[in-house]
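Retro notes
What went well: the complex prediction finally ran end to end.
Inputs used:
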Amino acid sequence: MEKTLTPDLELAASGPLPLFGEREHKPTSVWRRFIRNPLAIVALVVLASLAIVSFSAPLWLPHDRVLEQARGETFASPSFSHPFGRDEYGRDAFARAVYGGRLSLWIAFSSAVIATAIGTILGMTAGYLGGWSDVVIDRLIELILTIPFLLLLILAAAVAHPSATSILLILGLFDWPVLARIVRGEFISLRGRDYIEAARASGCSHWRIVWKHILPNAMAPIIVTGTLIVAIHLTSEAAISFLGLGIQPPTPSWGNLLTNAQNYVISAPFLAIFPGLLILITVLAVNLLGDGLRDALDPRQR
Amino acid sequence: MGRFIVRRLLQAIPLLIGISIVVFLMIYLAPGDASQFAISERANEQQVQQYRHYLGLDLPWYRQYLRIVGNWGHGNLGTSLIQRRPVSSIIIQRLPRTVELLGLSTLFSLLLAIPIGIISAVRQYSLADHTVTVLSFVGIAIPSFWLAIMMILLFSVKLHWFPTSGTQTIGEPFNLVDHLKHLVMPVTVLTIVQTAGWSRYMRSSMLEVLQQDYVRTAHAKGLPARRVLFRHAFRNALMPIITLLGLSLPALVGGAIITEQIFAWNGLGQLIVTSASKRDTPVVMTMVMISAVAIVIGNLLADICYRFVDPRIQL
């Protein structure tokens, strides 16, 4: 009896159990750990510049440049005025890469937000309520995870009307299971803690317990996994569009620019190099940022 | 052990039924069906309707579904709506192409990833470790289709070492050397992408084991470092790799789909893309079920191997 009594008192005094890191679970210390990681800072700067360049594009790069053809200058090599060269219709490959990236980044980011929201809510429900809702959600997770992700995307994209919105929704609606499983695990381990018991005893509603007492402690894995989902969605969108099932030309996306470039790899290799390099740099930066966030938020992992 | 396997397989049955229904409904509920793709574009509406009736696509959804699944119950995979050939013969024709691609790349990836992971764990923070870390981060982030295009550009277009696509030179009789030459680039692409992830995994797994007390004890006893490494640490560090292998199947399938598409490698991955866009339900469902069964078995085998490597785990 005495054995369990002492730690319980300590816990009660310390408030919500600091799951991640020591006691110092303040934003300032998280930020301090984050900025000590030079790679994560570089990644953040790279991503921020990519986002600023592509989302501010309408201000400095007229959208007409994306489709404007110059029949006399097909496959012109990269030059000062057209840094990525021109494609088979003489269109400006730089403008296409910028606007393609705008679309690709937007799809990857917003679909990751959707997937993270669904995964968090379903994981919370399954982990906190348990019982039949847990069984149903767990089966659903298993069902989706037993179909190879890309196969599922191809199926959904092939039967849907191909558009940016449908790709965005498909990615958002199908890529939540991994996160849901993580959140579910966090909630199962947290809901039995003594401080939750205490909160319940003092009359907290379930709603308040979930949002104020459990979710903040499960935030670290949610943020980290959510970041990594952005990277997965960037490659997935590019892959789907590359296969011709996603964003349809003439609207550019990093994926379909590569499909096109593959046909002209002999005459105009530069068309293939730049969009792929952009995907590589972006995905690399997102992954490094995710790693940096994990180290900062959750130093015990790794 | 036997009971565990039986229980897991029984649990998989409702899961597989669920998957088959979901996949069927996805294709069924989508606008359009196979009849549009199966006959000539010039066919008029009446001919399309006749053909739809002929294919049984005008039946209610549950009857169409039960017909496909009922066929499976009789060991018959059905007939492709587009190619009008038995699904089994289409798949058997293409299966070896995919198996050799995935088998070889998995083998090479393991042969590379395990030693690379061990070296960078044992020499943590050395030049070798940093190099491996940088390369694996790039390898994880690199889009496989772009890597493939860059390899085509370098090794086919510039250096003329390997052919750009296909499984053999068109118009020539099958010749093993020629086939192997076609195999090099797709296998390399898949190997690079897999090795990047797996070596990272092997590294962290080895690092974790090296910090264990029993490894320190073995060192303290005065055992040679090599012996500690291989006898004590390696075996335990291999465990996560076994699970990873079981869990990597979905990603492997995805990798195969992309790689086959780029290299015009006529395996199952290429089949799935064309079949899905032409709403060829029997082919698509068979393919999804094959990969789902493979994933279920892969997970099961991973658990069983786990049990063998670590007898502490009770199944």
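What we learned: Chain B has two domains: 2-73, 88-309.
What to try next: split runs per interface for comparison.
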